[in-house]
Amino acid sequence: MMKLSWVWIVIAIAFLQLVTGFLDFNETELSLIEAYDYGVSKLNYNPLMVGLTFITSAGAKGAVCLDGTLPGYHWHRGYGSGANSWLIQLEGGGWCNNVRTCVYRKKTRRGSSTYMEKQIPFTGILSDKAEQNPDFFNWNRVKLRYCDGASFTGDTENKAAKLQFRGQRIWLAAMEDLMSKGMRNAKQALLSGCSAGGLASILHCDEFRNMFPRTSKVKCLSDAGLFLDAVDVSGGRTLRSLYNGVVGLQCFFPQNLISNIRTPLFILNAAYDSWQIQSSIAPPSADPHGYWHECRLNHAKCSASQMRFLQGFRIEMLNAIKGFSQSRENGLFINSCFAHCQTERQDTWFAANSPEIRNKAIAIAVGDWYFDRAGVKIIDCPYPCDKSCHNLVFK
After folding, report:
1. 3 state SS of 87
2. Can 195 be counted among the known catalytic residues?
3. Mean pLDDT of 268-276
4. Burial 285-305 (b: 16+ CB within 10 A, else e)
5. pLDDT at 4 over 50
6. Which residue of 3, 15, 53, 301 shows the fewest CB atoms closer than 10 Å?
7. Where are the transmembrane segments (predicted)?
8. Is 204 helix (H, G, I), strand (E, B) or coil?
9. Is-catalytic flag, 273?
10. All residues at 6 or more sequence positions from 117 whose CB lies less than 8 Å from its CB, including other chains
11. For every residue of 236-301, which 3-state class applies, written as one string?
12. Are residues 255 and 199 in contact, defined by beta-carbon separation less than 8 angstroms?
C-alpha cells in the first residue's frame, strides 16, 4: 500500500514538472476567492498578527520561490499543554500552468517572498483564543507560505523564463527548519491546508507522518482540496484537458489518492465548492455565451436546470469519497454550502453562527476526530436544506 501511494505521488510530481500547475485560471476571479483567505471579519476585531520568518537555510538547498527568493512561514509558539503539539497549515492560492501564468505569478505573493505580507492575522484554526479555536489555540501553529505555483511539489526550472519550480524542496526545507526548532519533539502533529494547500496536505500526508516517531499522534486535514475530475457545463473536462494525453496522470486527482493514504485523514469540503464551480465546472471557456455567468457568481441566481447540474456534482463528490469513508480512522465533513476554505475564516471555523451539520461546528468535528473523542463522518443534506451556511457571493 505504501509503495502504491508513493508511486502516485511521484506521478503527480512528474505531471506538475511538465505543466507546472493545473489551470489557466482567470486571475481576477481567483483573487476574489482568495480575498477570503484570512477571514478577518467583525467576529475578530483584534486578531493575532504573526510575523514572517524566512528559511535562511533554504537557498543553499535550492529551495526557492518561483523567482528565486527565499520561502518563509509564520510561526506562533505553543505553550502549556500545547508546547509539544504542532499544527502546520499549508497556504493555498491556485496554480500556474504555463510560462505566461508563472511569470505573472512570480510578481505576486504567490510566487515571490518579496511581495509577501510581513505579518498576517492568525484566525480560525490558527487563532490563539480558546473561545475561537478550542482544541488548537495553544499549539505551535505554523502557516507555510505558498510560492512555487504547484502545491508544494515539483523540482525543475525554466532557465529562459528565470522560473524555479522547487515546491518539493521548499516543503522539505521548511520541515527540516521546523524540526530544528522543536517540532522533532512533537507528541501531537496535524498537517493541514486549504485549496491548493489542501491538495498538498493530501500529497504530503504520509511523508509528514514518517517524519515523526510512531509514538507521536500524527494526522492530516484537507480543507477544500478535493478537486474532482468532473464534467464541466460544456460536456468537457476542464481540469483533465491539461493532461494532453499523458497516460496515467489522472491519478493526480485526490479522489484517486485518498483511499490509499495510510495516515488518518480528515476531508472538509463544501459540496458546492465555489472555486470548482467558477474554475472547473462552469469556467468562461466552457460557457462562451455566458449562460452560467450569474449562477457561478451567486448561487441564488441559478436556474432550476443549473441547480440540477450542481446537485449532480455533489453526488459525484459523495461517490468519490465512498471508499475513503469506510476507514474508521478517516473523518469527513461535507456541508452543502457554496464556500471554499472554511478552516482559516473565523466565521466558518468556530463562531456563534458558524456552519453546522447536526449541531456540530467544523472546529468541534475536527477536534472530535483528531482526539478520538468520536468518529466523524458527517454529510449534509442537499442544498437548500442547510441554513447555517456562509455562502460566498461574488459581484
Report:
1. strand
2. yes
3. 96
4. ebbeeeebeebbbebeebeee
5. no
6. 3
7. none
8. coil
9. yes
10. 52, 109
11. CCCCHHHHCCCCCHHHHCHHHCHHHCCCCEEEEEECCCHHHHHHHHCCHHHCCCCCCHHHHHCHHH
12. no
Give the residue from 171, 257, 188 showing the smallest Cα distance to 222: 257
- How far is 146 from 156, CA to CA, in rounded Å? 17
The C-alpha cell that represents 369 in the structure block = 476526530
What CA dihedral angle connects 170, 176, 177 and 183, to 10 degrees?
Answer: 130
Contact 366, 201 (CB under 8 A): no
Domain spans of the chain, in order of start: 45-379
Q: Which amino acid is at 321?
A: I
| Residues facing 158 on adjacent strands | 163
Whether cis (ω within 30° of 0) applies to the bond prior to 254 is: no
User: Looking at 206, 273, 347, 380, which residue is catalytic?
Assistant: 273
277: which DSSP letter? I
CB atoms under 10 Å from CB of 42, counted, come to 7
Nearest to 367 by CA among 82, 136, 71: 136
Find the distance separating the first CA and the last CA of the chain, reported in whole Å. 46
**Phi, psi (degrees; rounded to nearest 5) at 351:** -155, 175
Q: Which is the catalytic residue, given 195, 274, 280, 354? A: 195
For the chain, how big is the Rg over CA atoms in Å? 19
**Beta bridge mates, 189:** 86, 218
Tell how strand 85-90 and strand 188-194 pair up. Answer: parallel
Range name among 143-157, 230-244, 318-332 with the lowest pLDDT average: 230-244
CA atoms of 195 and 198, how far apart (whole Å)? 5
Fold category of 45-379 in CATH: Rossmann fold (3.40.50)
Look up residue 195 and give its three cell numbers.
485549496
- What is the distance between the alpha carbons of residues 8 and 11, in angstroms, rounded to a whole number? 5
Q: Distance between CA atoms of 316 and 117, rounded to whole angstroms?
A: 38
> Which letter does DSSP use for residue 358 in this model?
T
Angstrom distance (rounded) from CA 290 to CA 267: 32
Say if residue 67's pLDDT is above 90. yes
With a CB cutoff of 8 Å and minimum separation 6, the contacts of 261 are: 5, 202, 205, 206, 220
DSSP track, 29-69:
HHHHHHTTTT---TT-SSPEEEEEEE-TTTGGGT---TTSP
